[in-house]
Amino acid sequence: MTLRGKKVIALVEEDFEDLELWVPVMRLREEGAAVVLTGKEQGKTYYGKHGVPVEAEAAFEEINAEEFDGILVPGGWAPDKLRRYDDVINMVKHMEENKKIIGQICHAGWVLVSADILQGKQVTSTPGIKDDLKNAGAVWHDEEVIVDGHVISSRRPPDIPAYCRELVQAFADS
Question: How far apart are CA 19 and CA 2, in angstroms?
Answer without folding.
Answer: 23
